[in-house]
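Figure 6 in text form: structure in, sequence out.
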């Protein structure tokens, strides 16, 4: 018996330690599941007063307000000629390209001529992409591409 323990004792201790670790891990996972599976306590519903609907205001004649859809076009030049591939500008992907095309912006010259007011107006249409024009420097990039200065563009913004 002593020979058996002397020969295999260390291995028996290692196996027992592994079994204890596995049992601990399994027990911990089962606790997590039981906590996650337990329903949340039911709160008795209280009577909540229901607000009476407010009648809609009667339509009154109001001065015509300029909506965003009717807002004056940006002070960018009108697109003349074939549309440019706006996807060459870093930060303009297919979604933003579609939004810009829908707004009538199809040429690098148009973007290069944007003023801060134009950028703010366009940002209102970009949704989750608002702020990209300033952050990704679209106006500067478009200036290089409108001039045809590919070398200058690639030196500052990387390969096309």
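Output sequence:
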């Amino acid at each position: 018996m002593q020979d058996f323990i002397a020969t295999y004792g260390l291995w028996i201790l290692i196996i027992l330690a592994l079994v204890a670790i596995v049992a601990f891990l399994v027990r911990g996972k089962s606790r997590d599941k039981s906590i996650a599976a337990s329903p949340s306590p039911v709160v008795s519903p209280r009577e909540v007063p229901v607000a009476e609907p407010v009648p809609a205001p009667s339509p009154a004649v109001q001065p015509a307000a300029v909506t965003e859809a009717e807002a004056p076009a940006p002070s960018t030049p009108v697109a003349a000629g074939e549309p440019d591939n706006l996807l060459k500008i870093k930060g303009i992907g297919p979604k933003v390209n579609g939004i810009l095309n829908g707004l009538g912006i199809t040429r690098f010259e148009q973007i290069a001529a944007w003023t801060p007011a134009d950028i703010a107006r366009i940002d209102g249409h970009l949704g989750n992409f608002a702020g990209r024009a300033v952050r990704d420097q679209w106006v500067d990039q478009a200036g290089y591409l409108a001039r045809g200065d590919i070398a200058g563009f690639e030196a500052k913004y990387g390969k096309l």
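Caption detail: DSSP finds seven helices and no strands in the chain.
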